[in-house]
Amino acid sequence: MVNIILDDSPSGGEASLSYGENDTGFKPTNQRLRDGVTTVAQLKHGFAVGNGFVDVGAEFRHRGSTNRAGFDGGGFFISDSDTPANEATLGQRNFAPGDGDAKDQDAWYNLRLPMDDGIELYSFATYDHRDSLGAAFFRYPDSQANQLAVYPNGYRPQTTGVNYGLRHSLNASLGPTSPTTFRIGDFKFDQLALNVDATRQLATALAKPRDLAVGAEYRHEKYQSGAGDPASSAMRSPASSAASTSSTRPSRCAARCPTASALLR
After folding, report:
1. pLDDT for 107-119, tens place per residue?
2. Which of 126, 135, 193, 221 could form a disulfide with 96 if both were Cys (CB 3.0 to 4.6 A apart)?
3. In degrees rounded to 5, what are phi and psi of residue 96?
4. Gap between the Cα atoms of 244 and 166, Å rounded
């Protein structure tokens, strides 16, 4: 159980601004890295409403990305028989393990209004919107997941959280005419909760009265997944390598929309 205590100030307001960043001595590359810049701006205010109150607030948060990759040494990705195009990428920071870039816009309100006969009206709501950008696995130039005409130096796809998308990528099975931006699926979650509580103080033979509390709650939750765009799951070349990015296929979504492998790289 999570107990969330919301602001209940009937008047006054507050504003705040904070800033921070990472300052890291990164030994694998002998670099001093300054990244992960985080800025948070908050604003809230309370208003009296009759004998009650309403509080409103908003927040903007931006967290910059971090990268803790060393220089690419090839490892098991580059063999003795590999191509000059692949070997030319060695010694670079091709991968990007770390936090993705994220921007959040939040808003909320909290309302309490006493009514007659001891009844109290209470309401609150929260809203959050996030845009995020993450790094996927690097694809070497001569990988089966690449088309040299599109990415002669290889590429590292980026995931976009706002629309379950992928950019700076391609579907190798579609050849050099493949799109480079995809929507890999649609996902939706709905939740409705209604509850009612009642309390009464009971006179007893004990030294102090006792309180009786009863309550009930109804909750309905729904999750749906939908197909991505056709190019995200198309497979025109049986010889293409196995996929590493998941996409939901239209042909299966009518049943239950399981996750299917796509040839997005």
Report:
1. 999 999 988 877 8
2. 135
3. -145, 65
4. 13
Question: Is the separation of the CB atoms in 84 and 90 below 8 Å?
Answer: no
User: What single-letter amino acid sits at 201?
Assistant: Q
Half-sphere exposure in the Cβ direction for 35 (13 Å, CA): 17
Q: What is the pLDDT of residues 46-95, one digit of tens each?
A: 999 888 999 999 999 999 999 999 999 876 666 555 788 988 998 999 99
What are the CA-CA distances from residue 184 to residues 9, 42, 143, 226, 229 (Å)? 44, 34, 22, 9, 6
pTM, to two decimals: 0.72
The position carrying tokens 């309550």 is 215
Give the contacts of 66 (CB within 8 A, at least 6 positions apart): 22, 33, 35, 36, 98, 99
- Whole-angstrom Cα distance, residue 249 to residue 230? 8
CA gap 22, 117 in Å, rounded = 56
End-to-end Cα, the chain, rounded Å: 40
- pLDDT one-digit tens code per residue, 108-151: 999 999 888 778 888 889 999 999 999 999 999 988 899 999 99
